[in-house]
Amino acid sequence: MKQVTLLTGTAALLAALSVPAFAQTEIATGADAVGVSAVDDRITDIEDAVTDDFDRSADADRFGPADRRQGLFGNMSLSYTGRTGNTENQDFALAGRVSYNQAPFAQSLGLAIEFGEDDNGNKDQEEVSAIYDAQYYFNDQFYAFALGRFQIDGLVDGVANAPGDDPAEELTDLRRDGFLGFGPGYRIINTDTTTWRVQAGVGVRYTQTGAQYLSDDSDTETGYIASSRLYHRFNENVFITNDTDILSSDANDIATNEFGVNFKVSDQLATRMSYTTEYQSDRAIRTDNTLGLAVVYGF
């Protein structure tokens, strides 16, 4: 199957997410026993990672909300594994996303819950995460946005409970971490070949470390966010993207920039190259740089 459609949009991905999907346990009779299924799953994971990289670069929201699916829709997934025998443990995961789009207003809510026990019956994972994303378009160019995130790690309680736990990390690791921001956005350019939108706003970050959990304390601080999304298509075969995000608060300043070049080399071959720079003001080495390459070939 030709994979070059990755360069043109995310319609296939959205269609796949709109219906339940169930993975088969083995690709052929006996594949589980000899380890073929495990390798096949890893191949699928790599393919999915590359596909996600292409889909993000295409920027499904670059032309605004005109083509958004309307109404209420979403998906939910649940996974449970219990093991007995040489090892006795269990893992549970629940994740889902609900979206509601109505004319100029679009919003989505995501939730992930993960619990796990080790071979001794002790909890080794207890995490809950939630995200919120919303946009309201006043016209084709001007809009308002809201972004929210909240995470809880129930195992961070300020006390080293399990062997190997670092007492210092238990005190400094975050038990709770949340952020809510909102502000205006504007589409500076919105043509068939070039789109550029910027947005900026103010937010509130709430954190609680393990030490603060013991003393029933927490921190709340003001943060400022700014983002830019640039997309330009030179022709049907080549387009570039440049994504910039900045978060500034009393705790630290964080900035990321990713520049990507996407090529449709042929009907069977597509390539994406990216260069990402991440800056954090409170690190000894403040800047990290990452060079990425993704290639898809179908025949």
How would you concisely characterize the structure shown here?
The protein contains 5 helices and 12 strands. The chain is globular.
Question: How does this structure look, described?
Answer:
It is a single chain. This protein has 299 residues and is an alpha+beta fold. It is 15% helix and 54% strand. Strand 1 and strand 2 (89-102) form a beta hairpin. The termini are close together. Residues 1-23 form the signal peptide. This is DUF481 domain-containing protein. Keywords: Signal.
Attribute tags:
299 residues; twelve-stranded antiparallel sheet; 54% strand; disordered N terminus; DUF481; signal; DUF481 domain-containing protein
Structural class: alpha+beta
Q: Please report the total strand number as a whole number.
A: 12
Q: Roughly what percent helix? A: 10-25%
Tell me the β content: over 45%
Number of structural domains: 2
Give the strand line-up of the largest sheet.
Answer: 1-2-3-4-5-6-7-8-9-10-11-12
How do the SSEs run, as a string of H and E?
Answer: HHHEEEEEHEEHEEEEE
Global Rg? 22 Å
Largest sheet: number of strands, sense, barrel closure: 12 strands, antiparallel
Net shape: globular
Uncertain residue segments: 1-23
Measured between the Cα atoms of the first and last residue, the distance is 6 Å
Number of helices: 5
Mean pLDDT: 84
Protein name: DUF481 domain-containing protein
Organism: Paracoccus spongiarum
Keywords: Signal
InterPro entries: DUF481
